[in-house]
């Protein structure tokens, strides 16, 4: 997890020490790209660059990227659903409409200008679970496979009116659909002490209905038996629908070695049923908590209450109020978990970086 502020910028690496392969997911806020550029420029074998969806905390870092005179890195393939893919999902057309000024959204134009292969694994050029190619895992060089879990065509289509309205405004996106109008509303959970895990886990669940989050590209990456579920900001119900047959095939729960929790730990993107659908004891959450007070205590509580006996581990790439409350010896003793934060780093630009090794 790289320093994406309240967003995501993820780097997945696999292979042998003599030949490593890489996958980049999202670029966080605008300052993220400046912080991580030198690290990305030096990478070879970038097999896939995924822009999961158009929320500013995932895509704003692409603005300085596409302003570069030349591509700063060379992904072998790019997955990203822009306006043409939304329209193609509506019609299920294999030919994309031409880019006009109104549809010249910056990342899409940058992909074209850089000559990057765009959604080439899909004949329709739509990254969707409804594309025929997504019915089986997709193989990447170095032995990694990807099983797509989200988005669905219907969720891509639902974004069209939102996209069209925003394309009339200046800039890439001037809105953030996750914004809370009232930062002091009940959406935020003030704490005077340690979280009450059992009561929080049983609190009512109100699902995320934001259309951009519904278009999130979420997937399982697997290498030599290790599975990582990168959930972007996907809706819990969409993930559950995709995971349920996989869980049934494995006896009721689907093994995941690491879950990058959806929507930075929002309680609206992980239902009370979701933790019982996967067999997972490692959970990664990317956020500095600056805008939405993520992760929600109810979200962490759902994972703890669903599996209280086994040892678990939570990885937070920022130490902040909403993650600090879980660094409690009393809570760890009762609920059998550990927490990991980044170590102090003299390079302050890279604060928010945490490396997780599934083979150590």
TrEMBL record:
Segments for region (Disordered): 171-193
Domain of life: Bacteria
Acidic residues: compositionally biased ranges: 178-189
Gene3D superfamilies named in the record: Ribonuclease Z/Hydroxyacylglutathione hydrolase-like
Record-linked PANTHER family: DNA INTERNALIZATION/COMPETENCE PROTEIN COMEC/REC2, RECOMBINATION PROTEIN 2
The protein's name in its UniProt record: MBL fold metallo-hydrolase
Organism: Phragmitibacter flavus
């Amino acid at each position: 997890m790289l320093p994406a502020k309240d967003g995501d910028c993820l780097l997945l690496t696999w292979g042998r020490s003599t030949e490593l392969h890489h996958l980049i997911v999202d670029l966080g806020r605008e300052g993220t790209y400046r912080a991580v550029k030198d690290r990305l420029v030096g990478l070879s074998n970038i097999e896939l660059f995924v822009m999961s969806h158009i929320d500013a905390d995932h895509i704003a870092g692409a603005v300085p990227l596409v302003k570069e005179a030349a591509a700063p890195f060379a992904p072998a393939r790019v997955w990203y659903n822009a306006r043409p893919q939304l329209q193609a999902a509506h019609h299920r057309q294999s030919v994309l409409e031409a880019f006009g000024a109104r549809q010249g959204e910056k990342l899409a134009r940058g992909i074209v200008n850089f000559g990057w292969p765009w959604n080439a694994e899909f004949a329709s050029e739509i990254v969707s679970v409804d594309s025929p190619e997504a019915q089986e895992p997709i193989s990447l060089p170095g032995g990694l496979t990807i099983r797509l879990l989200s988005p669905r065509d219907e969720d891509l289509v639902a974004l069209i009116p939102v996209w069209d309205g925003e394309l009339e405004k200046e800039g890439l996106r001037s809105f953030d659909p996750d914004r809370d109008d009232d930062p002091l509303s009940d959406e935020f959970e003030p704490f005077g002490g340690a979280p009450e895990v059992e009561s929080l886990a049983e609190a009512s669940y109100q699902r995320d209905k934001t259309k951009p989050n519904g278009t999130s590209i979420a997937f399982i990456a697997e290498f030599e038996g290790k599975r990582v579920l990168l959930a972007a900001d996907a809706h819990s119900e969409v993930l559950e629908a995709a995971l349920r047959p996989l869980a049934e095939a494995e006896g009721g729960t689907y093994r995941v070695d690491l879950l990058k929790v959806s929507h930075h730990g929002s309680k609206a993107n992980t239902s009370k049923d979701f933790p019982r659908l996967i067999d997972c004891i490692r959970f990664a959450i990317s956020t500095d908590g600056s805008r939405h007070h993520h992760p929600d205590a109810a979200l962490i509580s759902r994972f703890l209450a669903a599996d209280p006996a086994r040892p678990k581990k939570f990885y937070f790439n920022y130490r902040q109020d909403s993650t600090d409350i879980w660094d409690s010896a009393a809570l760890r003793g009762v609920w059998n978990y550990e927490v990991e934060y980044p170590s102090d780093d003299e390079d302050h630009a890279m604060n928010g970086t945490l490396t997780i090794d599934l083979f150590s």
